[in-house]
From TrEMBL:
<feature type="binding site">
    <location>
        <position position="188"/>
    </location>
    <ligand>
        <name>substrate</name>
    </ligand>
</feature>
<dbReference type="GO" id="GO:0006207">
    <property type="term" value="P:'de novo' pyrimidine nucleobase biosynthetic process"/>
</dbReference>
<protein>
    <recommendedName>
        <fullName>Orotidine 5'-phosphate decarboxylase</fullName>
        <ecNumber>4.1.1.23</ecNumber>
    </recommendedName>
</protein>
<dbReference type="InterPro" id="IPR047596">
    <property type="entry name" value="OMPdecase_bac"/>
</dbReference>
<feature type="binding site">
    <location>
        <position position="209"/>
    </location>
    <ligand>
        <name>substrate</name>
    </ligand>
</feature>
<feature type="binding site">
    <location>
        <position position="117"/>
    </location>
    <ligand>
        <name>substrate</name>
    </ligand>
</feature>
<feature type="active site" description="For OMPdecase activity">
    <location>
        <position position="65"/>
    </location>
</feature>
<feature type="binding site">
    <location>
        <position position="10"/>
    </location>
    <ligand>
        <name>substrate</name>
    </ligand>
</feature>
<feature type="binding site">
    <location>
        <position position="179"/>
    </location>
    <ligand>
        <name>substrate</name>
    </ligand>
</feature>
<comment type="similarity">
    <text>Belongs to the OMP decarboxylase family. Type 1 subfamily.</text>
</comment>
<comment type="function">
    <text>Catalyzes the decarboxylation of orotidine 5'-monophosphate (OMP) to uridine 5'-monophosphate (UMP).</text>
</comment>
<feature type="binding site">
    <location>
        <position position="33"/>
    </location>
    <ligand>
        <name>substrate</name>
    </ligand>
</feature>
<dbReference type="GO" id="GO:0004590">
    <property type="term" value="F:orotidine-5'-phosphate decarboxylase activity"/>
</dbReference>
<feature type="active site" description="Proton donor">
    <location>
        <position position="62"/>
    </location>
</feature>
<dbReference type="InterPro" id="IPR011060">
    <property type="entry name" value="RibuloseP-bd_barrel"/>
</dbReference>
<feature type="binding site">
    <location>
        <position position="208"/>
    </location>
    <ligand>
        <name>substrate</name>
    </ligand>
</feature>
<feature type="domain" description="Orotidine 5'-phosphate decarboxylase">
    <location>
        <begin position="4"/>
        <end position="224"/>
    </location>
</feature>
Amino acid sequence: MSKPVIVALDFADDFECINFLNQFPKDDKLFLKIGLEMFCQFGYPFVRNLRERGYNIFLDLKLHDIPNTVKRTCEMIAQWDVQMLTVHATGGAEMIEAAKKGLDGSATKLLAVTQLTSLGQTELANELQVPLKSQDYVTHLAKLAYQNGADGVISSALEVPLIKEATSTNFLCVTPGIRPKSAQVGDQKRVATPAHARSLGSDAIVVGRPITQAADGHQAYMNICKEWNK
Ligand SMILES: O=c1ccn([C@@H]2O[C@H](COP(=O)(O)O)[C@@H](O)[C@H]2O)c(=O)[nH]1
């Protein structure tokens, strides 16, 4: 699969979401991210419906619980034929390992969220009281994820070269916090343009509002793909 632009489907209702998807040609098999907002409302039937329509699915549930609970949840999700699933790396070594065990036998890639892209250096130091430079914290969590069986991480594009160096070039770096030059940054702190993310080595970018809230979502997606694939 070529490096995808993953569209974050953060819609308040499924009708709005399907209208959005209907702008795209039928044979355009998009890579879609279903996050907490839509999953909490529509659950697994919504995921199954989109899989049956042929879309690739990144299920962004950011699991974070004791190892036994996460393992049992992953065993269930392993049957759903989704392409990617997230847990929080801060759940620790045993939890990451348990998540991977739970996904055994499925093709679902396990991605560990490092430092949310909505948190910058100031929030890390003042709110979370983490006495590390952001890039060192992200690299530390990426190594933890790598050593405990995750297939990759979620980070900002800015940390990708450091993560690849600390783990492996094959360790997936999927990066949200993507903003084309003209887009509003909103609540994101560690951002990069699609072209910058590409040059830093991201394996996939995740883009939500710059596409889903654009006047012409399909055109916005095409523009981002063009910049990403250049
Ligand atoms: O660190 C993270 C982890 C996940 N996300 C998710 O990605 C999208 C980004 O949406 P935008 O509208 O492009 O900001 C969103 O669904 C987040 O939940 C993230 O942004 N950062």
